[in-house]
Queue: 4 jobs
Job 1
Amino acid sequence: MDQIDVVRTPASWVVVGLDNGGTCNNATVLDATGQYLVDHLVENPSLVTDGPESAVEQLAEAFTGILALTSTPLTLVRAVGLDTPGPASADGVISSKGSTNFSQVSWHGFDIRGALEARIGLPVIYNNDANAAALYAHHRHFGASASEKSSVAAIVGTGLGGGVVEGGKVVGGAAGMAGELGHVQIPLHGVLEKDQGVPLCNCGFEGDVESIASLTGIKNNLLPYWLGKFPDHPLAQEPINKAAKLLRGYGEKEDPLALAVFGQQAKAIGKLFTIAANFTDPSAYFLGGGVVEAAPHFRQWFLNTVREHTQLRAEQQAAATFALVPDLDMAGARGAAVAALDRVLTAA
């Protein structure tokens, strides 16, 4: 969806949303009336590969930059929402083993939420990036009735992130690791071909959703198998990492190999949503990630395939909807802002 470059000044007190990524930070402002003050990406380099000190300083610059852009006085800011890629605790402490974006030893066990809070002197509310996107999708889709609805979101990227929203709030879990939908193991009947080996995830699990429905799953498991079936395919001449990234373009052209791979991904997500249907029975199933950024006919085909392979009872089919995560490039920052706004209102 094309974004209109609009900047508003606040009509009330505000919260700020900061989305931290491997390359860039994205910032937004949400006022107490529920209006976002920017309608486009506002980014600065995240510098996460330079280590925690540089990265936290860049987040602080993103914060001050978005206030300047929207003519928002610091005194109007009640809280800041922050999201980062996981895994991390509910309090924003990066996993002791690090992660894809936080691989340096200095990041292991680092309290990024606490560090930013100390740097800017305001309360910081943390979510992982998939939870933030799921929260935004939920509130954008349901609007005023968001607090009465539930949803499950699968965000397909390098891995598979997810989020479970109940009553308008993200389900965090005891350790903050609820909604790690990528590591739910699924029945593989009807997903894999008879001669296809059980896919292995980087987490060590066999046959979880991420081992199939992710860029990593394509590279490690799906594409090597299907290239064996299509040995003359142009992607067979490319390094596997490059071939995996090029595959979506072939899918948009309805290439048979690409549709076979993405069809398996959609079936795997359908199995995941079937489990969700019997576990939480959500009001909506959201799909986000790279597929949402694809050509409209391809992303609709993918969503339709997911829906076709989600086994719902007639009552559930009548009650639930399937939709794409909107404004994906801004969904993280906006969801982080929603979480901050909710925390402020709950405290009040």
Job 2
Amino acid sequence: MAEPTIRAAGALLWRDGPEFAVIHRPRYDDWSFPKGKIDPGEHVLRAAVREIEEETGIVPRLGRRLPTCTYPVGERTKRVEYWAARPVAESAFTPNDEVDELVWLPAGEAEARLSYAHDVDLLREFLRGPLHTAPLVILRHASAGEKHAWRDADELRPLDATGRAEAADLAGLLHCYGILRPVSSATARCLETVLPYARLIRASVRTDAAFTVGDTSPEQAVERLLGSAGAPMVVSTHGEIVSALVTGLCKAFGEKVPDDPSLRKGEFWTAHLTGRSMAALERHSPRTTQP
């Protein structure tokens, strides 16, 4: 039986210049980008942020998704999920057993310093795309019980126990992207889904009829979304609206629409946008670490 794949997450961490954070690991005597194994039950977004903090002392904000690197490690395969990332907060680097040196280098010097071809490829891929992107998150509200079992006005239907747990998990996942402006459908279940995140970043949630089922149309929802594209934002909305938003966003930026643009409850799409392009699109669930 084949050994299970080793799953890891990390980032190409950069700052204005641009300069890139390259770390030295004494155990292997190599130079690479920050990364590490995903803990059992840990979400890949949280793992990427945690590993950067542990190895560099830098609190990052994740940017666009970069290609996944897969390579052999002995008789096993290692799969590393990567993002571009920018520092939000930085403390003095403290050498440790895993990482004893961190240097910030311009692209040419970073490429020459890196020990592995897959890291060089990752750097070159990043440089082919836009440096600065803004995350736009389309979020389907978390679990809210069965509609047919709710006897009051549908806009008052709240999250159930599963949904409340999902909303709490989503707060930390969304925070991996930094500060996003929270916008919601004007229904209890959508508001409650994004409320823990809004509390975390000390922001208020703006409701918008354009994203509220029964008060909008797919065309209106897409028009409102495109009018806000370019600013970091999370939109908490309904399953009936999600597919139209994702499809409209992809078509507006000339990108292929995903085979299944819909979402399960509590899942979200993150589009990484510039003023004129969509640099990446990724899908996540609060309940899994994403295979």
Job 3
Amino acid sequence: MKRKIPLRKCILTNEMHPKKELLRIVSTKEGEVFVDPSGKKNGRGSYVVKNLEAVEKAREKEVLENRLGFDKETLAPIYDEIIRLIYREDIPKR
């Protein structure tokens, strides 16, 4: 029997992707926002595709700011963390 692959919608591109191809951004009731590479932390999760072009375009158009309701200063380190995680995955594992 074939296992069902969980799909989630990327908030940057509005496209469905397998959950493993996405990074989870969490916003909590306390007003915190952070990247959750494990995908298991408590809070409201939004998914972002692991694609540098999409992330850079989203930064220019302030997509996360509009979707999550945080200001630019709060989300600047989040964009940086997403980009850092994408680069880290591109490095071949030995």
Job 4
Amino acid sequence: MTDTLTRDIETGSDPSHPVRVFLRRCRAWVERHPRVRWTYRFVVGLLGTVIVGVGVLLIPLPGPGWLIVFFGIGILGTEFPSARRMAAFLKRVLSRVLAWWRARRTASDQTNSQGAQ
């Protein structure tokens, strides 16, 4: 499963991917029009903040509260460098926690299989 996920991430990160080419063209158009750029930044900021706020409200409830918060930070990171840095930091922390969890789980499974014999 990890290999498939890694392969999908690499495919989606490819700069020649048609969706990325289309988004770069749209972004270049926005950059050429100052009023559109200001409106775009405002809408991205508002949308990202609302999504983060909804995610924070959903954290204590069962469901994807944290996932929604991270999604909102990702949206903000498309336009604001500080949010991009925060998203990169959270990605590093989450990957370390996931690796720790997998190692702990593997060690626990090995201990349980040895104790059952």
